[in-house]
Structures are given as C-alpha cells and as structure tokens.
Task: inverse folding
C-alpha cells in the first residue's frame, strides 16, 4: 500500500498540482509551484521533492525561503522518510539545512501538528511541504520545539528576524 501511494504522489508531483493547490502554494511560498524534481531539468521556484536514488521511501525536498520572511534567499533541504505503513502513519520530515526557527530544532526536527497527532491519510507530501512553507512565514511560538527562540520571537521580533537572516546567509545560501 505504501509503495503504491508514494508512486502516486511522485506521479502527481511530476505533473504539477491542481490549480487550487498551486494558488495556495503561491500564497505560502510566494509564487512557487510544488513540483517533483524527478525528470525535471529546471528547478521549481519554491518547493520541490523527489526520491533519493532508487529508494522511493527516502526523498529529498527543497524549499526556497519565502520572500516575505527572514529566510528569503535561502535554499533549505529536507529529508523525508516514508514509513512502510504510509499513508496511515505520517512521513518523518526534517531539515538537513540549519535554520533558526522556534518550531525547528538543531537536529532539524519539525514541530508541526500534521506530522504528529493531526496526521490524516488524506494529506500528501505536497500539503506537508505547503504547511512547512507557511510555517516559515508564520511561526507558531505557542507550540515551540525551541522555547528560547520562541521567547525571542515573542519579545524581540527584530532580533529574531536578524538572527534568522544571519543563519539563512550562513547556512542556506
């Protein structure tokens, strides 16, 4: 079941996403379309994903930092591991590029409800990447993975944004 679903998502990503999802991703990722990297010579402008080698259970995703965020200009890589019981269990998604964010820790783990208790088999990797893009623009400091960064976000937004821009330049450019 997992392999069939992963193949379907890969095919859907390769074709592009439906218009409504394109518009949503354009809003969250500033004009980008969510497309698969496989068989694509031109990298998509904001989000992409595809298998690493021949292993369909291990993907790499790329997210371009949204222009209306301190991550603008950054290229962030993520690892995606699909469990054998996908889509009934969520994929494991983590950043491999360092990022300063209250919902992402130093190991790249992401605190996002749809990757935990709010997962539904109706969700796709496209929707997960869209949610992560949205989280870069609009962090959730009330459910932080890194409380210290959440505190800075809540109490000193200019310092938070300056540090996030600095980390983006240092690790994601």
Result:
């Amino acid at each position: 079941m997992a392999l069939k679903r992963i193949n379907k998502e890969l095919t859907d990503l390769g074709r592009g996403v439906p218009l409504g999802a394109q518009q949503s991703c354009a809003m969250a990722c500033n004009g980008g379309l969510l497309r698969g990297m496989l068989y694509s010579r031109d990298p998509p402008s904001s989000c992409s994903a595809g298998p690493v080698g021949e292993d369909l259970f291990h993907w790499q995703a790329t997210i371009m930092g949204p222009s209306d965020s301190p991550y603008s200009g950054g290229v962030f890589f993520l690892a995606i591991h699909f469990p054998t019981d996908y889509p009934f269990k969520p994929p494991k998604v983590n950043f491999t590029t360092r990022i300063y964010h209250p919902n992402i820790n130093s190991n790249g783990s992401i605190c996002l409800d749809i990757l935990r208790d709010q997962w539904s088999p109706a969700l796709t990797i496209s929707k997960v990447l869209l949610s992560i893009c949205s989280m870069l623009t609009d962090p959730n400091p009330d459910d932080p993975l890194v409380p210290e960064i959440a505190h800075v976000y809540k109490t000193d937004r200019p310092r938070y944004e300056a540090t996030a821009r600095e980390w983006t330049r240092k690790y994601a450019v």
